[in-house]
Request: fold
Amino acid sequence: MLINYIHWNADPEIFRIGSLAVRWYGLFFALSFYFGYLIMAKIFKKEGYSQKQLDQLAVYMIIGTVIGARLGHCLFYQPDYYLSRPLEILKIWEGGLASHGAAIAIPLAMYLFARKSGLSLLWILDRIVIVVALAGFMIRMGNLMNSEIYGYATNLPWGFVFVRSDLSLLPRHPTQIYEGLTYIGIFLILMLQYGKHHKNLPEGKLFGLFLVLLFGMRFLLEFLKEPQVEFESNMMLNMGQLLSVPFILAGIYLLVRVRLKPFRPWPRKNS
Reply:
């Protein structure tokens, strides 16, 4: 009997009107932008930048996140399918977003915004990763409500039986919760670092810390996950781990660079 485990049978839909369904994943995705905007509004106000600049940043952020996450899923995990059916890439509502794709696209979008606004790219990235970490928590809660991206079978008492999606009905590691809690922890670390050092924050420090912590933990937690696509079954390291390595190395480089020769802090407008 599995009475010692958590039977998870959440409905991924909040409600449906005809063919239109409002899903928990979509709600959490939207909330990640909403709360991120509120946090960035406080940061911009504290450092003397305008609402207009923040609104422009938000547009770049949303476009970069959605396009990058969608292309990341299509090209990293199911390239054969989507390259033979390119119009299917546009069907975002059918699901399929990859955080590594967003992680590539967001800095590119921020680079374009930096060129337009005249702000320092590293100044922007040091602050935007605070809300990205929070968004990571939101997205993983959406995955939990979808009963997807779960782990291998476990006999631990907090194992989840994913009734809707796992025909084996075995208790499994709730890796969505593991990752979500990790991302909340990273969010708090970055917020505390920013609150304590924002007046003299070396450029690249928070961005580097984010890359090492988030993708380092992602690399480790992938060992507990079931393969997301069939071709990962015979891989020593799965796609998520392989894609995490360059981000970890980039983060280490930034932290070493900051330690040896800090980038000068971007001057605050109200200082």
Notes: The longest strand covers residues 13-17.
